[in-house]
Amino acid sequence: NMPVPYAGVFRRPPELMPYQTGFDDGDPSRPYARYALTQKLGQAPFVPGLLTTVAGYNGIFPGPTIRLNRGTRSEVRIRNALPASGLLHSSAFRTVTHLHGSASLPQYDGYANDFTAVGKVKNYQYPNWQAARTLWYHDHNMHLTAQNVYSGLAGIYPLHDPFERAQLPQGEFDVPLMISDAMFKVDGSLGYNDNEQKGLWGDIIMVNGVPWPTMKVKPRIYRFRVLVASISRSYRPTLSTGEPIYIVGTDGGMTPTVQAVRSWRHSTAERYEILIDFRKYQPGQEVELRNLSNKNNVNFTHTNKIMKFQVVADSGSNAGSISAIPTTLDDGGAPHPDLGGLATMGLTPEMAKVKRRLVVDRGNGLWRINGMTWADVENSNFTKLFANPQPYDIEQWTIINASGGWFHPVHIHLVDGKIIGRNTNGGKPFAWEKGPKDVFYVGESESVTVLMQFDTRKEAGGRYMIHCHNLVHEDHDMMIQFAVGDYRVNDPITADVPAVDNTPMGSFPPIYGPGFPAGT
Predict the structure, then answer these.
(1) Where is 378: in which H helix or E strand?
(2) Residue 108, SS3 per DSSP
């Protein structure tokens, strides 16, 4: 039953429509949209001839895409309708939802201990004031994030703005690619092996839940929002033709200068927005997106493949396409809603008020940051902090990998950062990471220096997490916290607790927008 590479048909996740829209206090300048998701079991045909049980948002993997415009506040009602215990663990199937890349208040940020038990619901509120970017939502439950995300709890959340819409492909030519890997048992169920808490590397690569799919593309310029949702594996994508790929966006939005690369290093949770120019190919030609891999992955026969593109004749509407690869991009200065906010890529070292060091390593069988673990945070009654910047402070953090032969994608919640230095690559950031980032690939024996502004709104502040996004490392126990301003405000566990959901199942039936034909 092993899937055959490129035999699967590419598909895009369905786009969820809001169940209600309106304006706060009737003000047209303050739009909102309300969505509903139900975490429940579903069946997916990953392996030919067999069905795999997944735990997904609305029972599907990937979860529905939620697409919004900047400035439209959203509320996402998330109901836990999962069974009593997990698919891949015997613990209670509690969930925590993190909108990765969002400057959310702490109580809506997916704090690991802010769990929603089975039978309860939480209404997450997202401000969406940041510049256009590719966000994603996923489970963040304490010590069980890896199993829950691997079970299927992940979805994509693109945010648009006028600057991005004017310069990059849209609609048919704006394509989300969620890349993940998995292993399966003989009955088609998910296999799970974290290799003594080092990581999980599956032998099957999936894109949007389809093993090694083939996508039909027109001879046009396409934009792909590439998210790695694997729980441990990193990738180095490249085209089989050797042609360049153009980096136009990173985790936190557009890059000021478009970068042409032959490949790029991409760890779990990072997002890279890329352009591929298919105009040079004739109908019938095929191009593979391959994986060159990186150090300290476990590779198998076909993990050097990701997906295939099959060029077809140009037909139908080309609305949303662009006519040339841009060289520079303008985000309008990425203004923030309150005075004091600066564009991330405009930060300079002279602005930093404080310089800090984060050292990631392994000791006493635990993955740690500066010798601390999440257990230390819990034992302090959640008062132990790595740092306590004030709103709008700018700081310089250097992340140092002292763990030997391992790489760590370090995620800092709330903020976007500008990489200003590496001890490799001549001390400079790599070409593909010259845009705002919230996940920092710290390779073997590498160090990365980052500038960040803690640009909360006036009423915001409180505690946020820092952790490795190799989710096995995060769970054992590579996670600490910082606070912006008063650490006691917006308590992430008590400020807005989940409630018992007394509404009948099916009270918010999902409505999905019109999609594109299968394979495109």
Answers:
(1) helix 374-379
(2) helix
Decide: 416 and 254 in contact? Cβ < 8 Å: no
DSSP-assigned states of every residue in 231-273: SS--B-EEETT---EEEEEETTEEEEEEEEESB--B-TT-EEE
**Residues of the chain above pLDDT 90, percent:** 94
Taking the C-alpha atoms of residue 320 and residue 169, their distance in angstroms, rounded to an integer, is 5
Residue type, 456: T
Are 60 and 31 in the same domain? yes
Q: What is the CATH number of the domain that holds 225?
A: 2.60.40.420
Q: How many separate domains does the chain show?
A: 3
Burial 257-294 (b: 16+ CB within 10 A, else e): ebbebebbbbbbbbbbbbbbbbeebeeeeebbbbbebb
pLDDT tens digits for range 392-447:
999 999 999 999 889 999 999 999 999 999 999 999 999 999 999 999 999 999 99
- Six token digits for residue 191: 């296999």
CA–CA distance, 194 with 205 (Å, rounded to integer): 17
Cα–Cα distance, 284 to 300 (Å, whole number) = 29
Check whether residue 175 and residue 143 sit in a common domain. Answer: no
> What 3-state DSSP class applies to 53?
strand
Q: Which domain holds residue 466?
A: 344-484
| Identity of the residue numbered 46 | F
Residue 187 maps to a domain: yes
The residue type of 462 is G
Name residues whose C-beta falls within 8 Å of residue 137's C-beta, 6 or more positions apart in sequence.
57, 63, 66, 76, 97, 98, 99, 100, 154, 155, 157
> Do 250 and 120 fall within a single domain?
no
| Residue 43: C-alpha distances to residues 53, 82, 152, 234 (Å) | 5, 13, 11, 27
CB 32, CB 125: distance < 8 Å: no
Q: Using pLDDT thresholds of 50, 70 and 90, give the confidence band for residue 336.
A: low
Q: How far apart, in whole angstroms, are the C-alpha atoms of residue 471 and residue 326? A: 36
Q: How many CB atoms lie within 10 A of CB 300?
A: 14
Predicted pLDDT of residue 342: 84
What is the pLDDT at residue 332? 87
Rg of the chain taking only CA atoms, in angstroms:
21
In a domain, 339, yes or no: no
Banded model confidence at residue 318, pLDDT cuts 50, 70, 90: confident
pLDDT tens figures, 442-490 = 999 999 999 999 988 766 899 999 999 999 999 999 999 999 999 999 9
**pTM of the predicted protein model:** 0.98
DSSP single-letter state for residue 350: G
| Exposure of 270 in the CB half-sphere (CA atoms within 13 A) | 29
Residue 20 shares a structural domain with residue 117: yes
Q: Which amino acid belongs to residue 184?
A: F
In this structure, which amino acid lies at residue 235? Y
Separation CA 50–CA 185 (nearest Å): 11
Residue 160, H or E segment: strand 154-160
